């Protein structure tokens, strides 16, 4: 899927998350994350533009974070938008987001 | 808190029944013989009272019930032998339990020491010691932290409202004890939300539900990630997370509000809801948890116990002398706990309905006989009979009201259906309901589910436009489906209205022609075209969808409604929407009918079918060659049906100009003229099933007994139409010179779709 912007910047993969991270975007996001870790040790997901988010997409990000922790990789969520932050609060994942996000 | 008091009432009512069950079981306990079924029944009764009491925070009651239950458990697993003394103790314990319930009902604390002696006696049996052991040691009214429990959830005993039996188990696991104390004046809810993996696929989003929970109070949400698979194994659209929400909320947040949050996902997740009240300042027992499993429709939360409950009136003067103390403990001790409702087997009510029906017949019979009495005489008898008639009518209405149920039980299922349909079709739909409290016979209510489901699906699938299309034509994005019920002239009228595109008449007509349901070139009125959708096998959906379009829609609906003695009509305005109107009898036990005679036979025609009766002139009658006779009535040609021919009745009036024609209308609006000898009068008749007593007959819906004791058949107008068609196909009546030939321009077949 083209909606997730992929860029390789100095050895780190940067995924630009789209504004609409609904259920249909979960699969592309998951594939993006898998491909990202396949290509680099460091994957960052830029979440500044996220205006709508589904639990399925947050779940994919959760799996990515755990993957990074277990395999000694680096993962970060860049500039999580207000919507993403609120959704994580609703899901009881505020501490998790805090741990994995970067301004 | 009105709901809470209702649930409490249910609890006390059912507890009274359970006490009676326990008592009768205890009285049958024979020393040395253990009937395990009997013992189990007693155990369950006590256990249920305890569990329900826990839900309301009746800590003293729960503590005592626990002692009682522990001994019963010992009896159950034969570790405590059944002796006469044990049975005495248990009967006394049952009485004390009844007292505790009475105190709880009065919202009063039991006087100190109420349970001491009995608890001591129970514990002696538990210790295996004989009764002559020591003097009764004072038993604490307060109990240890946990009430261990090895019984499966008995929630069913208290219905949806009463669950809470796994409370003790939860407490034992430490879920209750580990948490911080509940703030005064608040309740702590623990909601465990475990969605099924495919929850997201049905369009549900946990964030919305959890957000809604957060709005109810101070929520702490704990997400369980343990089931989350590794990144490589994750299925993107399946849900692996589950949540535990701890909610500190005001007492006005009840379980119903919490359940509402999960209303649409009830089948797609496992939800457990537990509640704790603050520990009362004076009572030592811990707050008791209740738990519901699986998603309850409704359950009662405990109240915040008053910190200092007022003592009951009786105990004021002599606090040291509890009411039931030692002694025999007579059976009347818990007489204060009387029930305000009783549950009655449906068969018994039906027998009652039946007997009232017989009485109505007898009363009609007497009325028939006194009609022949000389006028002016027997005045008192006549007045008495008049009163009897009135009382009979009231009695019948009262009995019918026992069987009546509000339609809300059906309506409440619809929001979910609407949501699912909306999700499946990608449409935005708002459901508005009104008149949910309208009552109708239980059988009617039960049989409404399928037709309403079909019709609402149809409205959403066929009627409503998609959000984009609606926006384009200036309608709000979300379509509205309005479901309403009301009583109207002795019937219940249910309407399903949508603000969609209305029936696509050209499409319906071309489909009907394509399917051979209507002859090409026939000219049909808008109303007739609309009614084509009720024909068997008719569906305009181009593609078979999950929702509708399988050709088993509206004809089934009409058949279901007809079988309930109801009618269905459709009104549609292009671009504005459709309205389906169901009219159903309030009861299936009696019917307003018109008694008619044919030859020496009497028949009953349901009043709802009758349009008018008239005596045609010869000029109004026409014979269709090789077919049937028709009559011109109010500018319309109507097929004549000779009842004497259909049923082979001799000595009937055969000439319509000397007989009467009763104009009747079937559910789909088609009209027939029934040729009868005489119309005898209107009468309310008691419906007797022909199938149950004899066998089904064509053209006959049921039977009844008339005032003179004769059995009369209640005619089924739609069935008569079918019969007359078959009958007319073998029609060989010679043309009657007295009847004018039918004008060639008659647009006949279109009037009555075959």
TrEMBL record, chain A:
<feature type="domain" description="MlaB-like STAS">
    <location>
        <begin position="16"/>
        <end position="93"/>
    </location>
</feature>
<dbReference type="InterPro" id="IPR052746">
    <property type="entry name" value="MlaB_ABC_Transporter"/>
</dbReference>
<dbReference type="Pfam" id="PF13466">
    <property type="entry name" value="STAS_2"/>
</dbReference>
<dbReference type="InterPro" id="IPR036513">
    <property type="entry name" value="STAS_dom_sf"/>
</dbReference>
<dbReference type="InterPro" id="IPR058548">
    <property type="entry name" value="MlaB-like_STAS"/>
</dbReference>
<protein>
    <submittedName>
        <fullName>Anti-anti-sigma regulatory factor</fullName>
    </submittedName>
</protein>
Automatic annotation (TrEMBL), chain B:
<dbReference type="Pfam" id="PF02518">
    <property type="entry name" value="HATPase_c"/>
</dbReference>
<feature type="compositionally biased region" description="Low complexity">
    <location>
        <begin position="285"/>
        <end position="298"/>
    </location>
</feature>
<dbReference type="InterPro" id="IPR036097">
    <property type="entry name" value="HisK_dim/P_sf"/>
</dbReference>
<feature type="region of interest" description="Disordered">
    <location>
        <begin position="128"/>
        <end position="153"/>
    </location>
</feature>
<feature type="domain" description="HPt">
    <location>
        <begin position="1"/>
        <end position="104"/>
    </location>
</feature>
<dbReference type="InterPro" id="IPR036641">
    <property type="entry name" value="HPT_dom_sf"/>
</dbReference>
<feature type="domain" description="Histidine kinase">
    <location>
        <begin position="337"/>
        <end position="588"/>
    </location>
</feature>
<dbReference type="GO" id="GO:0004673">
    <property type="term" value="F:protein histidine kinase activity"/>
</dbReference>
<keyword id="KW-0902">Two-component regulatory system</keyword>
<keyword id="KW-0547">Nucleotide-binding</keyword>
<keyword id="KW-0808">Transferase</keyword>
<dbReference type="Pfam" id="PF01627">
    <property type="entry name" value="Hpt"/>
</dbReference>
<dbReference type="InterPro" id="IPR005467">
    <property type="entry name" value="His_kinase_dom"/>
</dbReference>
<dbReference type="InterPro" id="IPR003594">
    <property type="entry name" value="HATPase_dom"/>
</dbReference>
<feature type="domain" description="CheW-like">
    <location>
        <begin position="590"/>
        <end position="726"/>
    </location>
</feature>
<dbReference type="InterPro" id="IPR037006">
    <property type="entry name" value="CheA-like_homodim_sf"/>
</dbReference>
<keyword id="KW-0418">Kinase</keyword>
<dbReference type="InterPro" id="IPR002545">
    <property type="entry name" value="CheW-lke_dom"/>
</dbReference>
<dbReference type="InterPro" id="IPR036061">
    <property type="entry name" value="CheW-like_dom_sf"/>
</dbReference>
<feature type="modified residue" description="Phosphohistidine">
    <location>
        <position position="47"/>
    </location>
</feature>
<keyword id="KW-0067">ATP-binding</keyword>
<dbReference type="InterPro" id="IPR008207">
    <property type="entry name" value="Sig_transdc_His_kin_Hpt_dom"/>
</dbReference>
């Amino acid at each position: 899927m083209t909606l997730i912007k992929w860029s390789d910047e100095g050895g780190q993969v940067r995924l630009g998350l789209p504004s609409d991270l609904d259920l249909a975007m979960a699969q592309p996001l998951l594939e993006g994350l898998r491909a990202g870790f396949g290509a680099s040790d460091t994957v960052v997901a830029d979440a500044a533009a996220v205006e709508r988010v589904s639990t399925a997409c947050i779940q994919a990000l959760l799996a990515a974070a755990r993957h990074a922790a277990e395999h000694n990789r680096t993962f970060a969520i860049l500039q999580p938008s207000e919507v993403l932050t609120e959704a994580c609060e609703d899901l009881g994942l505020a501490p998790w987001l805090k741990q994995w996000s970067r301004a | 808190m009105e709901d809470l008091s209702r649930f409490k009432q249910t609890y006390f009512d059912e507890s009274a029944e359970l006490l009676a069950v326990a008592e009768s079981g205890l009285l049958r306990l024979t020393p040395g013989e253990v009937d395990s079924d009997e013992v189990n029944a007693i155990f369950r009764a006590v256990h249920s009272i305890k569990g329900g009491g826990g839900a309301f925070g009746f800590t003293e009651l729960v503590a005592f019930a626990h002692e009682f239950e522990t001994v019963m458990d010992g009896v159950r697993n034969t570790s405590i032998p059944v002796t006469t003394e044990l049975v005495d103790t248990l009967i006394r314990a049952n009485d004390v339990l009844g007292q505790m319930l009475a105190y709880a009902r009065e919202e009063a604390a039991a006087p100190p020491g109420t349970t001491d002696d009995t608890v001591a006696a129970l514990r002696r049996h538990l210790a295996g010691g004989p009764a002559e052991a020591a003097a009764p040691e004072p038993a604490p009214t307060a109990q240890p932290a946990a009430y261990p429990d090895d019984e499966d959830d008995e929630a069913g005993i208290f219905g949806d409202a009463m669950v809470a039996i796994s409370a003790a188990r939860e407490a034992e696991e430490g879920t209750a004890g580990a948490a911080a104390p509940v703030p005064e004046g608040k309740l702590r809810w623990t909601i465990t939300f475990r969605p099924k993996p495919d929850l997201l696929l049905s369009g549900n989003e946990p964030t919305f539900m959890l957000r809604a929970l957060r709005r109810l109070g101070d929520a702490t949400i704990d997400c369980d990630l343990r089931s989350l698979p590794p990144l490589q194994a994750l299925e993107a659209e399946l849900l692996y997370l589950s949540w535990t929400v701890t909610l500190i909320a005001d007492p006005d947040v009840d379980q119903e509000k919490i359940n509402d949050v999960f209303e649409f996902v009830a089948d797609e997740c496992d939800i457990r809801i537990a509640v704790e009240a603050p520990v009362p300042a004076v009572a030592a027992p811990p707050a008791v948890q209740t738990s519901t499993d699986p998603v309850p429709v409704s359950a009662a939360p405990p109240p915040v116990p008053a910190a200092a409950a007022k003592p009951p009136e009786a105990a004021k003067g002599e606090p040291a002398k509890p009411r039931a103390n030692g002694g025999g403990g007579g059976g009347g001790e818990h007489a204060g706990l009387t029930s305000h409702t009783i549950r009655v087997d449906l068969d018994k009510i039906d027998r009652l309905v039946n007997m009232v029906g017989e009485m109505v017949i007898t009363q009609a019979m007497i009325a028939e006989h006194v009609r022949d009495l000389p006028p002016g005489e027997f005045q008192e008898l006549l007045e008495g009979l008049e009163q009897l008639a009135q009382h009979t009518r009231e009695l019948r209405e009262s009995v019918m009201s026992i069987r009546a149920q509000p339609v809300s039980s059906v309506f409440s299922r619809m929001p979910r259906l609407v949501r699912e349909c909306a999700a499946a079709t990608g449409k935005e739909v708002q459901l508005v309901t009104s008149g949910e409290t309208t009552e109708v016979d239980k059988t009617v209510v039960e049989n409404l589910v399928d037709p309403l489901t079909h019709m609402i699906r149809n409205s959403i699938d066929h009627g409503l436009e998609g959000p984009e299309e609606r926006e384009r034509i200036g309608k709000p994005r979300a379509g509205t489906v309005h479901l309403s019920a009301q009583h109207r002239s002795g019937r219940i009228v249910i309407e399903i209205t949508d603000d969609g595109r209305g029936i696509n008449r050209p499409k319906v007509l071309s489909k009907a022609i394509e399917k051979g349901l209507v002859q090409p070139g026939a000219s049909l009125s808008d109303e007739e075209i609309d009614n084509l959708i009720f024909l068997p096998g008719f569906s305009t959906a181009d593609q078979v969808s999950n929702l509708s379009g399988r050709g088993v829609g509206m004809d089934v609906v009409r058949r279901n409604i007809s079988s309930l003695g109801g009618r269905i009509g459709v009104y549609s305005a292009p671009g504005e929407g459709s309205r389906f109107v169901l009219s159903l009898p309030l009861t299936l036990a009696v019917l307003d009918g018109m008694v008619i005679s044919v030859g020496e036979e009497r028949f009953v025609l349901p009043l709802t079918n009758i349009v008018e009766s008239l005596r045609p002139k010869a000029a109004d009658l026409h014979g269709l060659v090789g077919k049937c006779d028709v009559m011109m009535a109010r500018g319309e040609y109507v097929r004549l049906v000779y009842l004497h021919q259909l049923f082979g009745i001799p000595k009937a009036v055969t000439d319509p100009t000397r007989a009467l024609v009763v104009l009747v209308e079937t559910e789909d609006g088609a009209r027939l003229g029934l040729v009868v000898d005489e119309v005898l009068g209107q009468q309310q008749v008691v419906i007797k099933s022909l199938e149950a007593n004899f066998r089904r007959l064509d053209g006959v819906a049921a039977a009844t007994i008339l005032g003179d004791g004769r059995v009369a058949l209640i005619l089924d107008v739609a069935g008569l139409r079918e019969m007359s068609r078959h009958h007319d196909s073998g029609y060989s009546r010679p043309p009657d010179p007295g009847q004018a030939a039918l004008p060639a321009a008659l647009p006949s077949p279109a009037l009555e779709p075959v």
